Amino acid sequence: MTNDVERVLITEEQIKEAVQRIAKQLEEDYDGKEVLFVGLLKGSIAFMADIIKAYTKVCSIDFMSVSSYGAGTESSGRVNIVKDLSQPIDGKDIVIIEDIIDSGNTLSFIKAYFAAKNANSVKICTLLNKPDRRVVDIDVDYIGYDIPDEFVIGYGLDYNEHYRNLPYVGVLKRSVYS
Ligand code: IMP
Ligand code: MG
């Protein structure tokens, strides 16, 4: 598996640093409120687990699964709900936890969906952000790292469902998918 990694982009140490920094900021921003963290399956599982363990205030969690990607490395632009929330969210303060923001299609769809369900507030938290790839304009409130336009894997991120279990974020060798 590690033979397919071109190079490590974000180390385990850097991930820990980002998790601590973001969790601290979230605690300040949601002081006196109760956050509902919504993790987007499956890519966010590692980041979601680490964020909630670092967050020391009252919170609850839920998950959603949407698909916009096919089996390749390019977004299709269309977003389908595969698994919906397990609770009503009207009046709730939501922080969406995402692995990576690429075109922005997924998040702009979900933000609008949550707004239509009358959430009180919706913010976006992502470990990785690829600003050069943005197709739709969205405000991202918490970002671990901006990264260049390269296909990355590990720490939840996959290529064809593999590599999610790597403990760091690495660049996938082009020979694996081209
Ligand atoms: P967007 O809708 O184009 O912003 O795509 C977001 C989703 O595409 C992410 O949640 C990932 O699942 C997937 N994705 C985008 N870039 C990468 C990447 O470099 N590696 C793995 N998955 C990616
Ligand atoms: Mg994803």
What do you see in this structure?
The chain has 178 residues and is α/β, with parallel strands linked by helices. Helix content is 25%, strand content 35%. The protein has helices at 12-29, 45-54, 105-116, 174-177, and strands at residues 5-10, 35-41, 59-69, 75-83, 93-101, 121-129, 142-146, 152-153, 169-172. A six-stranded mixed sheet has the order 4-3-2-5-6-7, with helices on both faces. Strands 1-9-8 form a three-stranded antiparallel sheet. Helix 2 links the parallel strand 2 (35-41) and strand 3. Helix 1 (12-29) packs across helix 2. The longest helix is centred in the first third of the chain and has 18 residues, at 12-29. It is globular and about 50 Å long. The chain starts with a strand and ends with a helix. The model has no long low-confidence stretch (mean pLDDT 95). Magnesium ion (MG) is lined by residues 40, 43, 99. Residues 40, 43, 99 line the site of magnesium ion.
Can you give keywords for this protein?
three-stranded antiparallel sheet; binds inosinic acid; globular; binds magnesium ion; alpha/beta
Q: Quick summary of this structure?
A:
The strands form two sheets. Strands 4-3-2-5-6-7 form a six-stranded mixed sheet, sandwiched between helices. Strands 1-9-8 form a three-stranded antiparallel sheet. With 178 residues, it is α/β, with parallel strands linked by helices. The protein has helices spanning 12-29, 45-54, 105-116, 174-177; strands spanning 5-10, 35-41, 59-69, 75-83, 93-101, 121-129, 142-146, 152-153, 169-172.
